[in-house]
């Protein structure tokens, strides 16, 4: 499938591996693909993100990813569901970090560290890659670009989609910017 990826899409995937490594994660997750996308410049995805106002708010996205990883990779929806059962995830994180240090619950940190640059792709990241292929086919694009990775991130439930939506980046808004008139309002 990677032979169908544009140079920009390959850079996102390579960047995602680097992001996972930098965060000490054992595998590449969708959030790492999102962080890899934020590093892109001059690509279709970067222009779409800028058009939706995310260009100047990249640090806010990075903070949201770090916070989600501190919560052991739980999305806000999952945290809210647990709260409905009387489980305060924020309190649990605080207690674990008090006993074991900041970041002790960070998603993907358990076990031995993989070799540098040899992070496997987790199920969620693999699903994003497959969804990007389907998205490219749906839009009749011959190659899979970074814009298809971005669109796929908005379609698959999870932390990355939640963070993007919180920043006004949805599938509908991206589709308007990428394939429509180019006049999309955030959200």
UniProtKB/TrEMBL annotation:
Protein name: Peptidase
Record's keyword terms, sorted: Repeat
One Pfam family here: Clp_N
Superkingdom of the organism of origin: Bacteria
PROSITE patterns documented for this protein: CLP_R
Domain called Clp R: residue spans: 2-187
């Amino acid at each position: 499938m990677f032979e169908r990826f544009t140079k920009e899409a390959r850079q996102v995937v390579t960047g995602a591996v680097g992001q996972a490594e930098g965060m000490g994660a054992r595998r590449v997750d969708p959030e790492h693909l999102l962080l890899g996308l934020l590093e892109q410049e001059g690509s279709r995805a970067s222009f779409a993100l800028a058009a939706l106002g995310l260009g100047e708010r990249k640090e806010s996205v990075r903070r949201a990813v770090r916070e989600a990883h501190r919560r052991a990779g739980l999305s806000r929806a999952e945290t809210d569901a647990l709260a409905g059962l009387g489980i305060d995830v924020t309190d649990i994180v605080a207690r674990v970090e008090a006993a074991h240090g900041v970041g002790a619950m960070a998603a993907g940190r358990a076990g031995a560290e993989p070799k540098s640059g040899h992070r496997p792709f987790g199920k969620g990241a693999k699903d994003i890659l497959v969804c990007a292929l389907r998205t490219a086919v749906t839009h009749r694009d011959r190659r899979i670009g970074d814009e298809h990775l971005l669109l796929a991130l908005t379609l698959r439930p999870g932390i990355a989609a939640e963070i993007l939506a919180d920043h006004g980046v949805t599938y509908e808004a991206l589709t308007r910017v990428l394939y429509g008139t180019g006049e999309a309002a955030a959200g």
